[in-house]
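Researcher: Batch entry, complex prediction.
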Amino acid sequence: MLGRLLVRYLRPGWPLILGVLVFQIAQSLASLWLPTLQADIIDDGVLKGDIDFIWRTGGIMLVISLGQIVCAVVAVYFGSRLAMGMGRDVRNDLFHRVVSFSQREVGQYGAPSLITRNTNDVQQVQMLVQMSATLMVSAPILAIGGVIFAIRQDVGLSWLMGVSVPVLLVIVSLIVVRMVPAFRAMQRRIDRVNQIMREQLTGIRVVRAFVREREERARFEKGSADVMESGVRAGNLMAIMFPAVMVVLNVSGAAVIWFGAFQVQAGDAQIGTLFAFLTYMMQILMGVMMATFMFVMIPRAAVCATRIGEVLDTEPSVTAPDTAAEVPAPVGRVVFDHVDFAYPGADDAVLHDISFTVEPGTTTAIIGSTGSGKTTLVGLIARLFDVTGGQVTVDGVDVRAYDPDELWRRTGLVQQRAFLFSGTIASNLRYGDEQATDEQLWEALEIAQATEFVEAMPEQLGAPIAQGGTNVSGGQRQRLSIARALVHRPEVYIFDDSFSALDLRTDAALRHALAERIPDATRVIVAQRVSTIQHADQILVLDHGRIVGRGTHDELVATNETYREIVDSQLSAKEAA
Amino acid sequence: MSGGGMRAGRGRGPMGGMGAPAAKAQNFGPSAKRLLGMLRPDALWIAVVVLFGVISVALSVVGPKLLGEATNVVVAGFISKDMPSGVTKAQVIAQIQASGNGQVADMLRGMDFTPGQGIDVGRLGWLIAVVLTVYIVSALFMWLQGRILNIVVQRAMHRIRMLVEDKLHRLPLSYYDRSQRGELLSRVTNDVDNIGQTLQQSMSQVVISLLTVLGVLIMMFSISPLLAVIALVTIPLTIVITVLVARRSQKLFVAQWAATGVLNARVEETFSGHAIVKVYGHQRDVETAFRDENDTVYRASFGAQFVSGIIMPAMMWVGNLVYVAIAVAGGLQIANGSISIGGVQAFIQYSRQFTQPLGQLGSMANLLQSGVASAERVFELLDEAEESPDADPALSVPADASELAFEDVAFRYLPDTPLIGDLSLAATPGSTVAIVGPTGAGKTTLVNLIMRFYDVDSGRILLDGVDTRQMTRADLRARTGMVLQDTWLFSGTIRENIAYGRPEASEEEIMDAATAAYVDRFVHALPDGYDTLLDDEATNLSAGERQLVTIARAFLADPRILILDEATSSVDTRTELLIQRAMSRLRTDRTSFVIAHRLSTIRDADLILVMESGSIVEQGTHDELLAAQGAYWRLYNAQFEAPVLDSGAPPVPAMAGGVPAAADAVGEREVPDAAEGVN
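Model: Structure tokens for the complex:
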């Protein structure tokens, strides 16, 4: 998956890749040339007493090192462009894909996971490309080039490389292969300890009320001891790494001197050769080590790439039709015709054979227990989901045939957990209609029973709203999102349990205002409180995805046991009458 | 060759430092000292670590010189092997001088060789053996000190964590109420983790790096002061480069972080409010905005990466410059005999061994700053004022004490915001007291006072005639049970959560409690039954089912005094029915204080307290209060359809500090944030 992702997004940037390769190779070559020149200084300069040669060669070395840094910088330039550009492109594609998802896909992954994928995961992959472009190219070149140059200097000693390189490789690999899971385990335990801490903070009252401080402390202590244990294990591996590598490097150096001595004695090698060989040996070993570290990054980035690829490969289940149907003037009639809905691969359908009609200007209420499918049902109207059987029509036309923009013009959704965007009250309300005037905004606020608290804010309509609307209370959020729907002025309002945060008084006032000010609008209300839906034109009782009761409040109280039970639990006998 | 090149470790520093601008500590010195003080219990081990470190570094620093000696032996052998034996060194040199090669003569004069001998294998062998021993022993000590240091750091971290944990249980509830949850959480998790990382990474590196730099400097000067000075040139050069580049890249990093923050906020908002974005037709707007913000990120991050990516090549270049300089200057020095070839070789090794720790120390600065800043925040927490100690000697009451009375109780969270004044009430054993009123700090305050989460300003709360302040908090709380609106369960099994009420309870008692609370029914539908693990997000139980589990927990605790909060929005109606019944059962034979929302509860209560704006405005039974046509009567009428004009209580202003965060009073019910699953 990582490979596929890289190929797909890096291919268009192939000139950059070429640039990186060329300049990295050049840079590494320059790096590798210097020890050879130094060997020359010793052999042909110092030992022969040729001072000029020393100076001349020194000059050449200077020029080469200048060239090296220029090449290195250019390589970094290309590499950064490549990596950051890829990050940008992946983010764009991911975002576009997720926005085109329906609620089913969003629910499948969960918003937090999608957010992580579009931010952190892309970051990881991007970092891998950046590292590769800089280090992962030069490391192998240094290693291989080093081998070549070293052999060039002295073939007789080359066998030493054949020993130390594999030894180093084995040692480092062994350690690194153990280190990654060790650190992962440590992180998991740290997460656990933090979770315990989080729970204690959230439930501090309960902990104290049940006098469980000692148990909590013991629970935490165990978690902390676990962290300590895994931290020691991971740290031990770290502690071994450096000394082990040092031993290999230094022993190799000593071996070069020892074995090289005999070569010199036999006249097969020069002194300078020895020097150069030593330097190359070190460069090779360094290169091998760097490459091993880089390989550690790959699994992590691969995991991220898989997560990104998953999303990119998911097709949205709700798509706009190729040609939008002709639609009549908006009236606000909603019809469910033998509607079924099931998640793909699920045994049980969420909705079975749902049929009902909502006449324009009327209120239909839906009540039922958890899991009965209420939110899914109303979500079908606005095509947050698509039916798997039967059809939903708005104003006589199947919702799937609509141009999505037109469908959404006619429907207004107010969710249970109201969501506001960062900005101002006005900008949030205008989300329903960019052209709305201030008077229209105030009107909507009035109906939504929100005038009072908005007026109380110093900036009023300009009052800032934080992301998610967290700086206003739950009830205020709900009223603002109701106002937003009012500004939108759809023909069909869908209230998915949107009055739950309001007290009875405000709830009643709001419904009155709605009845009075938008009498022609169709209202579909999902609610838990009987008092909210008591006066609806039609009440549907949902149970396990089927309609088990239909009628007005009085009819249902008389005929439907489920409904009666619900009513009893909420009102006293006097009020229900 | 020792020392040169990469340090084993998670590549921070010059390699792609994508970290956020480090938070700065306010009092670096004192805080750092205090942080180090956390290691004091293991001071002896620290001394061992330092000792081992010194030994290791000393040995590793001597190595190159020895190796240089070995090289000299080889060179001497090389020079002398082609010379006739039997001649003395002086004679050979004179000969070469005479033949006009003065330069070579000069060089030879500085060498130690015997003409005709060739390589002195014995001496070479001895030197190599010593070198190997030195390096291996050095590595051994390095390894040992690393292991010991690691253990010491881990123990210190454990100590810090336990200090924080203990502190949390001694802090007064007022601290929790006035702190921002997220901020406090970050302090005890992120900041503590950060300290750990800093200690882990910096401790070993700082000590070794400092010692290495010192040792290498000494060795370099002992070989050749001239070359040493040349090598020292690197320091200012390195610093200049790092500072120049760092300054530019810092600005770019800040820009990158800002742009990324904007982008991430956009992603978060769009994905969290996905349905709203679509249903209001803002898909295209959002994508256009994203594309622009993404481009900004691209430009900023490219710049930052590029500029900071220059550091490594630049450092390498400085390293190479020094290498060249030493090669040339060294070569010249060898030529005129003032230094040996082996010496130059050693020197090159040393110069590599020198620059690397310097770079390490540089990249450490950021880490240290951030770590000490975190330590500061944690210390702040540890220094907070604690709860007042329990009364000593403490009084107690018989096990079945259940008569609770308030006697002239006055309380306010803030001195200038009056709350409860002169409240007296008596709850006879087994009676139910219903507390009603619009949402506001009032109702939770009573809970806080009864449980002694807060203490009264004046007056007394009496349990069977004994002032609760004279009892230990644990004693008082053991007799009271709480079922709150926001259901707190921890990440254990259902069984464990119920057992939280009374850990010593038997399996049978747990089952009884579960049955009484209607928990049994739905647990049997779960695949793992009572062993089902409740997870953090609690997605496997609905809000209503969680509430039932907390009721079971309260059943098990079997308290004489009960505090119930009936508010249960976002619970499906079926489960709500069960909760209602369970709560009603729970209340039998116990003195209960119920924050009531259901008419049936209120009507049947023995005493009703009507609260408004935080004060109790009426007391009495249902019939009495209706007859009085006061606040209760007004509230009661609101149950009906016709909205009553709000002539009642003015909105309670949100109190800053010292008060439990309350929702806006008017038009509100408290809604727990934990959401139920999809309907």
